[in-house]
Amino acid sequence: MQQLTDLVARARADADGIGGASARVIPIRPALPLAASEAEVARILQICNACRYCEGFCAVFPAMTRRLEFGKADTHYLVNLCHNCGSCLHACQYAPPHEFAVNVPQAMAQVRLQTYHDYAWPPAMGALYRKAGLTVALALAGGLALSLVLAVAMTGALLHEPLAGNFYAIFPHNFLALVFGAVFAFVLFALAMGVRRFWREVSPAQENAPGEVAGVRAAAGAEAARDVLRLKYLGGGHGEGCNNEDDRFTLWRRRFHHFTFYGFLLCFASTCVATLYHYLLGLHAPYALTSLPVLLGTAGGIGLVIGPVGLLWMNLRRNAAHGDVAQRPMDRGFIALLLLTSVTGLALLAWRDTAFMALLLAVHLGVVMALFLTLPYGKFAHGVFRSAALLKFAIEKRLPSRLQLGAD
Q1: Of the segments 20-34, 40-54, 146-160, which one has the largest average pLDDT value?
Q2: Distance, CA of 82 to CA of 236 (rounded, Å)
Q3: How far is the C-alpha of 45 from the C-alpha of 383, rounded, in Å?
Q4: How far is the C-alpha of 292 from the C-alpha of 140, rounded, in Å?
Q5: Domain residue ranges in the chain
Q6: Whole-model pTM?
Q7: Is the dihedral of CA 317, 322, 328, 332 positive or negative?
Q8: DSSP assignment of 58-86, as one string?
Q9: Backbone dihedral angles phi then psi of residue 94, each to the nearest 5 degrees
Q10: Residue 24 confidence (pLDDT)
Q11: Which of 260, 252, 364, 272 is nearest to 314 (CA)?
Q12: Helices (H) and strands (E) in the chain, counts
């Protein structure tokens, strides 16, 4: 540990040498005690700040160099900026079995889960992140699907004459709009409240002052949106991809994320277009196979088969050192719900004009409801917090360093 102390002291001395005796750090807020996982990230980042070999790998390292100390807010910001590509682990000369035991991806993955827990809304629901595993996801989907199947069976419509794809003959439109609309509104509100608290904690006052960021906010927002849509930092440290089983690079993790991300967006777009058709144009379902809602939904459903299958395959094969194995049940639960949603949706489309339409519709709606209910308290949250961290990074790098080296 003496070597570690010397290394950190040398990093501080280097920083002082840049600004002279007048170099100082502007405190942002009173320091809060760190949990064990947060303290480990802070320890590792002190070493990384002295080494800086990985400075060009991703956004984490240039953001790190704007700090000399790493409090709770800093650790939560940086761990959500990390995309867990694994490149820095294989490049690090201090990685295990070195006595410094520097494993950036694993340490940051552990604190990311703490982020979701700490900023959940309402706070009491944060504990669900630690229970949102594959078994819970499948049990919830199965339970909701079974409930709807039994409800349809009680009406005597479980097996019926072909209805030309008229779902509203089974479940009235207003009923579906009310139930799913209410759940979706809660999901948006819960996620918005959580990320709002996160933003206020990790962003210093100067980044929230209109006068300070008025000139950079639009450009920073555009850059962050571009990085999110491209999944830029899933390209690995050198653009060759992530590490999965070992130190070999692969772009497949990024590609499968793209299939999943854009498949989800296409399905959402299909729902939005169908809503516009219904309320603005007076065009009611069922829609033809060549209609825009069906084409968008079909393309999205195919993406949500390819992407989750690929991500599940990679998750099963991934090196345990690249992340937090305790979170794999949460990862796989979310992947399973996405896959079940797409498979049941495509099956419903294929057999919508048969006597099995009501059964398939009940199963699909049960799975979709399970997916919606778990969105604020499962793996989906990582995309929301990561997007906020990318926006903060885009703003922060356009502002003067808060280290104020050389200031009076």
Answers
A1: 40-54
A2: 11
A3: 23
A4: 31
A5: 2-121, 123-394
A6: 0.85
A7: negative
A8: STHHHHHTT-SS--HHHHHHHHHH-----
A9: -105, 10
A10: 36
A11: 252
A12: 16, 2
- How does strand 249-250 pair with strand 242-243? antiparallel
Confidence of residue 128 (pLDDT cuts 50, 70, 90): confident
How far apart CA 255 and CA 379 sit, in angstroms, is 18
Number of Cα atoms under 13 Å in the Cβ half of residue 8: 16
Q: What is the pLDDT of residue 169?
A: 85
Rounded Cα gap, residues 267 and 25, in angstroms: 47
Cα 40 to Cα 257: distance, rounded to the nearest angstrom? 29
Beta bridge partners of 249: 243
On whether the CB atoms of residues 84 and 109 are closer than 8 A, the answer is yes
Of 371, 360, 385, which is closest to residue 114 (Cα–Cα)?
385
More confidently predicted of 171 and 238? 171
Please name which of 339, 64, 105 lies closest in space to residue 234, comparing C-alpha atoms. Answer: 105
End-to-end, the C-alpha distance of the chain in Å comes to 35
Alpha-carbon distance 152 to 361, whole Å? 10
Of residues 316 and 408, more confidence is placed in 316
Longest Cα separation, the chain: 85
Structure confidence by residue, pLDDT tens digits, 285-314 = 889 999 999 999 999 999 999 999 999 999
122: left (phi over 0), alpha (psi -120 to 50) or beta: beta
DSSP-H helix ranges across 119-251: 134-155, 173-202, 205-208, 210-213, 217-230
7 has a pLDDT exceeding 90: no
Cα–Cα distance between 80 and 112 in angstroms, integer? 6
Q: Residue 213 carries which side chain, given as an amino acid letter?
A: V
Report how far residue 321's alpha carbon sits from residue 105's, in angstroms, rounded to the nearest whole number. 8
Q: What is the mean pLDDT of residues 200-214?
A: 66
- The length of the chain, given as a count of residues: 408
| C-alpha dihedral, 165 to 169 to 171 to 172, nearest 10° | 120
pLDDT, position 191: 96
The pLDDT of 133-155, averaged and rounded, is 87
| Confidence bin at 136 (pLDDT 50/70/90) | confident
| Predicted pLDDT of residue 23 | 34
Secondary structure class of 397 (helix, strand, coil): coil
| Beta pairing partners, 242 | 250
Residues 50, 70 contacting (CB under 8 angstroms):
no
